[in-house]
Amino acid sequence: MSVKVVVGKDILAVNRKRAEDLRARFKQMGIKVVNILSSPGAGKTSVLEATIPKLQKVRAAVIEGDVATTRDAERLSHLGIPLVQITTLGACHLDASMVWKALEEMDLSRVDLLFIENVGNLICPASFDLGENLRVVVLSVAEGTDKPAKYPAAFLSSQVVLINKTDLLPYTDFDLKRVLGEVRAMKPDMRTFTISCRTGEGIDKWVEWLEEWVREAQ
Amino acid sequence: MSVKVVVGKDILAVNRKRAEDLRARFKQMGIKVVNILSSPGAGKTSVLEATIPKLQKVRAAVIEGDVATTRDAERLSHLGIPLVQITTLGACHLDASMVWKALEEMDLSRVDLLFIENVGNLICPASFDLGENLRVVVLSVAEGTDKPAKYPAAFLSSQVVLINKTDLLPYTDFDLKRVLGEVRAMKPDMRTFTISCRTGEGIDKWVEWLEEWVREAQ
């Protein structure tokens, strides 16, 4: 059986308008924005920990989104970059208004690239534009091969898939070839990177592509 | 910064009423109901695959919830039990009305225990009572030690935590002792089981407890 879903169209329309305002503001500031989505524990914060110290050509800042606790922001505090934690107190996604408010607490005058780490949720954040220029979805190999097909909105709305925790590949039945095939069948121009934040595998290639993207997008 | 959340109180109140109707209906039918929550890929379906064939004293049925695809129901179809798939077409959780409708498609006359596998999401399903008697949250060791603190509603509203994929413990930095300590600090009477659906470790103990619970709860 399938269930008809009542979508909060007003909420989404209000968010879309606010996201366009954000996008215009970021453009004026010369800042590129990356919105990072994933399930809980797929490694969004680890991706930032592995990526940011390797950036040589662009200066980064981070907005951290979490339902509760400031643990992710604490993990990144040693990086010495502009960093704000949004605690949603239960809400299942970030929206454009939350990001707008977070900007009041950040000095982005010397920043080229703003990462927004969304709440750990592979469903709801997909519906909320945050004014980003690039959406990245992180998939852990421990989550299983079927995730792109089962959570299509997150993947279809992203331009990049980071397949993380490849160090666990020998110990799982994750079928990397099949996932890559399914992702490309869903969206032929999807960029995919296989990485391990634990071992560093694949990080250089992703960082190189990201820096290039920031410069090209300007 | 913290963000004030506007909760859809009307939606939750309507759901609560419908859930109480469901609970009364299940009681009249002599059926115990378990609502299973987790992140995408923590192993809810694998728990059912490992658990149901081992049940000797109770007869099971399953309602499968997914955003898209019927893959989970297909995985369970060989079990030869009453089974209905709810595809939410994008919605981030099951609600009591969806379960009520699913019951129309099931013959539960020879069933003692109904499992409801919720949508893979550690946030939204926590707010929606499905008329269950027991809520179980599955946590994969690949997700990391910080999940109970970061997703408190799912854990605080559950009575059982299944820590799954213990076969991956040697390859992750998951701190089992710390997680068990944090969970018990959050909720002293929480039942916890460490299991691996892949190797079968811990499954017998969990199944034994579950069968005992079904009989005691009657």
Molecular structure report:
2 copies of one chain form a homodimer. The first copy, chain A, has 218 residues and is of the alpha/beta class. Chain A has one domain (9-216): P-loop containing nucleotide triphosphate hydrolases (Rossmann fold, 3-Layer(aba) Sandwich). Helix content of chain A is 35%, strand content 18%. Chain A contains 8 helices and 7 strands. In chain A, strands 3-2-4-1-5-6-7 form a 7-stranded parallel sheet, with helices on both faces. In chain A, strand 6 (160-164), helix 7 (176-186) and strand 7 form a beta-alpha-beta unit. In chain A, helix 1 packs parallel to helix 4. Chain A is globular and about 45 Å long. The mean pLDDT of chain A is 95. At the A-B interface, strand 3, helix 4 and helix 5 of A face strand 3, helix 4 and helix 5 of B.
List its traits.
globular, 7-stranded parallel sheet, alpha/beta, 218 residues, homodimer, 35% helix, Rossmann fold
